[in-house]
Write a structure and sequence with these properties.
Blueprint (H helix, E strand, L loop, with lengths): L8 E11 L2 E7 L8 E4 L6 H13 L9 E9 L8 E11 L12 E7 L1 H6 L8 H6 L2
Parallel strand pairs: 1-5
Antiparallel strand pairs: 1-2, 1-3, 2-6, 4-5
């Protein structure tokens, strides 16, 4: 669905997937930065629906963990000439006992990484990733 007319902000969920003290990050084709699993809340979609959809789209798996834990919310502002004034990022924690195989959509994503704290410190991430929050979890 398209965005509602006159919307000033978009809402995005970020799923911080941790297993073996490593965070799962994904890089889209044509981009040089990594992001956690997640994405935009579609118009008319609930947050839990977005979490389930994004997890499936970006990992190839149905979310089997019981509810993710809310970690943090933030508002990031965009330049005045953009389509939206900003984005509301909602960060959730998903802890897994063991890493799972990631099945990437080959036409959308270039690669994934499971990063330790030291690897994450040097990894390029998007402006909406909040690297400080990720590092504080490790």
């Amino acid at each position: 669905m398209s965005d509602p007319q006159n919307a000033s902000h978009r809402v995005s969920v970020k799923l911080i997937c941790i297993a073996d003290n490593k965070i799962l990050l994904i890089r889209k084709k044509g981009k040089n930065v990594f992001n956690p699993v997640g994405g935009w809340v579609d118009f008319g979609e609930t947050i839990p629906q977005t979490i389930e959809r994004e997890f499936l789209e970006e990992t190839g798996h149905i979310l089997w963990e019981k509810g993710p834990k809310l970690l943090h919310t933030e508002i990031k502002h965009f330049p005045e000439w953009g389509q939206f004034d900003g984005v509301v990022n909602i960060f959730y924690l998903l802890s897994f006992d063991t890493p799972f195989d990631v099945v990437l959509e080959e036409w959308v994503y270039a690669e994934f990484k499971r990063c330790s704290k030291s690897e994450l410190q040097d990894l390029p991430v998007s402006d909406h990733t909040n690297k400080e929050l990720l590092l504080s979890l490790m």
